[in-house]
Specification:
The complex is a heterodimer. Chain A is of the alpha/beta class. Chain A has helices at about 10, 35-45, 65, 85-90, 100-110, 175-180, and strands at about 5, 20-25, 50, 70-75, 95-100, 115-120, 135, 140-145, 150-160, 165, 185-195, 215. In chain A, the strands form two sheets. In chain A, strands 1, 2, 3, 4, 5, 9, 10, 11 and 12 form a nine-stranded mixed beta sheet that branches. Chain A is globular and about 50 Å long. In chain B, about 15% of the residues lie in helices and about 25% in strands. Chain B contains five helices and 14 strands. Chain B has helices at about 5-10, 25-30, 85-90, 130-135, 195-200, and strands at about 20-25, 40-45, 50, 75-80, 100, 105, 110-115, 115, 120, 135-140, 155, 170, 175-180, 185-190. A nine-stranded mixed beta sheet of chain B has the order 4-3-2-1-5-10-12-13-14, with helices on both faces. Chain B has a three-stranded mixed beta sheet with strand order 7-6-11, with no helix packed on it. Classes of the chains: A alpha/beta, B alpha/beta.
Chain lengths: ~230, ~210
């Protein structure tokens, strides 16, 4: 089966529908599937629920889908850098389910691993625990969180081979592997597609079994918070 | 009274050789500048990195290499990268010895509020709830009072909690307090501050 597609729109062909749940990789603007997000914007798919650690910034990343009002609900841990998000949320136009960052990552991992729920101490005694089943193990209280299985996972990797084996780069890995595994279908965008056999099998971060479609493209890779130090004289 | 850097320096003295540590955003980030001589700590960044290095030189920024505050950073010889699920597995699993983070309010029983002001600020908890629930020791670095002079070290938090009974030690601009059975115990008073001033600025119960 051929996994390589010529462009992001082709890679998403037949996968998008209104009201769907999409899991997206990325942390801030680092390692986000920016080409696939733009293609979803162009496709105009509506009423999306998106599980993603962040919601992009105004006009870039997932922020673009907020501008076009394609998002019904976000499942995120931190949305601080997005004025349009705040506006839509505070006016009640956008639903928001806050998940602690590690709980969101584990929900995606669990969903992809066939684990429907897991207990965690994270959030016990906070609003996050309200309405959730509590259970004590060895004298400590935990809450039940559920795995997420997404209709579609969109992720960004550094390199792929034609079989879908992926290698990520530095902290751009972040939510991409757990998001990828949570998808019933996973589409990945990469900077480079390398020939079969050129990736050392011992260094593959995510095996191709999780990857259904691959598209290569140019990435802007915007930096959100450029911080430097001066060279000492 | 301690300034931001003096608070960070004091927090740096909490670090022990060999520890893996997570530093939060704001003053806690400055603690990296005050790691004592002879103490080797490995900094974890919850977006997927152990062995966080300093900020890059101008022109050497890498968009694929950021910390949890989304700042560009660098790697070290001992650096390891991993995904977010692995990152929080080590946090939840108790492998991180200590987290140093900021606070809006702390209560005498160790309750911490640092993520949300209802109706106003909606940003999210990020990884803070996981960190305070999972790491070995939680140290809070904060201003003791608000801009209006109201205590932020309280009998009970008024804001939504980040964690219940999770704080071990508070390092404020006025001094150092430990959360102990029955309330807060004064460990240290900042230079130029009297114990009476520290007590007056603390709403929570101080035990001797």
């Amino acid at each position: 089966m051929k996994k390589i597609y010529p462009n992001p729109a082709a890679a998403l062909e037949g996968l998008l529908f209104d009201g769907m749940l999409i899991a997206s990789g990325g942390f801030g603007l680092c390692g986000i599937p920016e080409l696939l997000i733009a293609a979803i914007r162009d496709a105009g798919t509506k009423d999306l629920t998106i599980a993603s650690n962040n919601a992009g910034v105004d006009g870039f990343g997932l922020g673009q889908l907020l501008t076009t009002r394609q998002v019904k609900k976000m499942i995120s841990s931190y949305v601080g850098e997005n004025a349009e998000f705040m506006r839509q949320y505070l006016s009640g136009e956008l639903e928001l389910e806050f998940n602690p960052q590690g709980t969101l990552a584990e929900r995606l991992r669990a969903g992809g691993a066939g684990i429907p729920g897991f207990y965690t101490a994270t959030g016990v005694g906070t609003v996050i625990a309200e309405g959730k089943e509590h259970h004590d193990f060895n004298g400590k209280t935990y809450i039940l969180e559920t795995g997420i299985v997404a209709d579609l996972a969109i992720v960004k990797a550094w390199k792929a081979d034609p079989s879908g084996n992926l290698v990520f780069r530095k902290t751009a890995r972040n939510f991409n592997p757990p998001a990828a595994t949570s998808g019933k279908v996973c589409v990945v965008e990469v900077e480079e597609i390398v020939p079969l056999g050129s990736l050392d099998p011992d260094t593959i971060h995510l095996p191709g079994i999780y990857v259904h479609r691959i598209v290569q493209g140019q990435h802007e890779k915007r930096i959100e918070n450029r911080t430097t130090r001066k060279k000492e004289a | 009274m301690w300034d931001r850097n003096q608070m960070a320096e004091r927090a740096g003295r909490e670090l022990q050789d060999g520890w893996y540590v997570n530093l939060g955003i704001g003053i806690p980030t400055l603690v990296a500048n005050y790691i004592p001589e002879g103490v080797n700590v490995t900094l974890q960044s919850e977006n997927g990195m152990l062995g966080m290095g300093p900020f890059p030189f101008e022109g050497e920024e890498d968009p694929d290499l950021i910390n949890a505050g989304k700042q560009t950073i660098t790697e070290l010889p001992q650096t390891a990268y991993f995904d977010s699920a692995q990152s929080f597995a080590m946090i939840r699993g108790g492998k991180i010895a200590m987290a140093i983070l900021g606070a809006m309010e702390v209560a005498e029983n160790g309750d911490l509020a640092n993520w949300m002001i209802p109706g106003k600020l909606v940003k999210g908890m990020g990884g803070a709830m996981d960190l305070v629930a999972g790491v070995g020791r939680v140290v809070v670095v904060m201003d003791h009072t608000s801009k209006h002079g109201e205590s932020k070290v309280l009998k009970a938090c008024t804001l939504p909690l980040t964690g219940k009974g999770v704080v071990d030690r508070i390092i404020s601009n006025l001094g150092v307090l430990d959360v102990v059975p029955g309330g807060l115990k004064i460990v240290e008073v900042a230079e130029g501050v009297t114990e009476a001033e520290l007590r007056a600025a603390t709403e929570g119960t101080i035990v001797d």
